[in-house]
Amino acid sequence: MLTSLIALAFQAAAAPPAPKAADPLPADWKPIPAAELLVMKLADERQVVIRLAPRYAPVHVANIRKLASARWWDGETIYRVHDNYVVQWGDATEKKALPAGVIAQPPAEYDWPRYDAVTRLTRIDPYSTSTGHSADGWPLATNGMVAWLPHCYGMVGVARDLKPSTGSGGDLYAVIGHAPRHLDRNIAIVGRVLEGIEHLSSLPRGTEGGLGLYKEASQRVPIISVRLASELPEASQPRFEYRAANNARFAAWVKARENREPPFFELPAGGSDICNAMPPVRRAS
Amino acid sequence: MLTSLIALAFQAAAAPPAPKAADPLPADWKPIPAAELLVMKLADERQVVIRLAPRYAPVHVANIRKLASARWWDGETIYRVHDNYVVQWGDATEKKALPAGVIAQPPAEYDWPRYDAVTRLTRIDPYSTSTGHSADGWPLATNGMVAWLPHCYGMVGVARDLKPSTGSGGDLYAVIGHAPRHLDRNIAIVGRVLEGIEHLSSLPRGTEGGLGLYKEASQRVPIISVRLASELPEASQPRFEYRAANNARFAAWVKARENREPPFFELPAGGSDICNAMPPVRRAS
């Protein structure tokens, strides 16, 4: 049936059959600490799991952990869904005080002085001089001087006002379209959606001001709760693993991403942008 | 109010206030022929308008025009919604014969021997040696030998089986995620969604086989009709314009896309990938 063959063809496109050299060993899968997982619950059992990036944006992530511990987002909303751009949530009315200990004006954690990628993509992109993966599963870009987390699909950033604001972390967004890499180094990236991005990306688009804001408060999507996994009952903590990148098997995986294989692909690209080679993560078994 | 300021900030991000040099003259807006516009109607007044690219994929586009004239898609469905990838429609059951004159196996119109972009983006991307815009509003990439339409958000391609299939055009997809540029030159691109992409990108995701296929036939989204605008009653023909690219004002617009401006942006990127500099189009007034 053509449909199934189209499906197979597109399976090849989405996740090419990897050569054996690219297969991970069981030990390549490493647990992600529960304190790095942020769990957002929406109605109807919809759940979004975000991995936080404390190494890259420590003050913003400390804020986010405090906001979650204080249950600050519970009862707040997703108030912006901008097609081919971002879904944004937090306090749409800006009437809610920040919990004690949350720093209203963190430093501009937009980049990081040390570039320690353990892979190197073959070709450069228009926004950096090199891209690759950290040993523990983050996409990275560099200009040779500083490093940063790129604005790929599913990455989570801190909404901010005009300068000198950097955003408290109370309002967050996730990328749901083509990577808006022009935001790189202009805004703090604090994490990545590991699971449930479809609960954000398939929401009705907002229409207000051409910005994707919901026009009516009634259109906003209620947030039931946002918690650190480490603060959930142990039985209900989601467990995730990243694939360690500092080994030859991962390097082979990168090459396979850069050169998609027959029978679907006739012409391998010979390269990839970092957003089409996002670090593999999975649910722990 | 913070919300409005966030909004303004993101407005800057989405569409920076262009310098005067980048402003188009009224005469820069050129009509798109009605025979290049494909209008797909879904329930509840949802409408998707696609500009066809006959110059780049003439045989596939001729097929698509014949399929529309024969009302081949009427009553068919959107049967695949794959998050961060594609929405696909056509005949999910593969039981429908092609109309007379439709070529079941067109040539592989994956690239084009002449690269005639009239702009040049400052930096290269991992998938080409140069990118730019055609005079009449198409994004283009080249390797110095051939040219092709890149798989950017909203671009429309022809689903195909494994080689040597090129797809008839009966099954089409639109990109709804980060640009899958690895598909470039492996598949025929035949157009671009000009309006209504949100009616595709916000559909519930399919779950079947990890491919985004809807598991149950009842989940498929019915297509009411697909018509060439030129075959609609004149009063109901949508009219669109592209912005002519062969002028200094457009070159200034490209520079503005590559270097987003204060007060929101502190660090301009100095470059852009072609998918973040998609040719402007608009409804004709």
From TrEMBL, chains A, B:
Kindly report, in one word, the top-level EC class recorded for this enzyme.
isomerase
Among InterPro entries, the record links this protein to:
Cyclophilin-like_dom_sf (IPR029000), Cyclophilin-type_PPIase_dom (IPR002130), E_coli_cyclophilin_A-like (IPR044665)
Q: Does the keyword Isomerase apply?
A: yes
Supply the alphabetized keyword list. Answer: Isomerase, Rotamase
The organism's superkingdom is given as Bacteria
EC numbers listed for it are 5.2.1.8
Mind telling me what this protein is named? peptidylprolyl isomerase
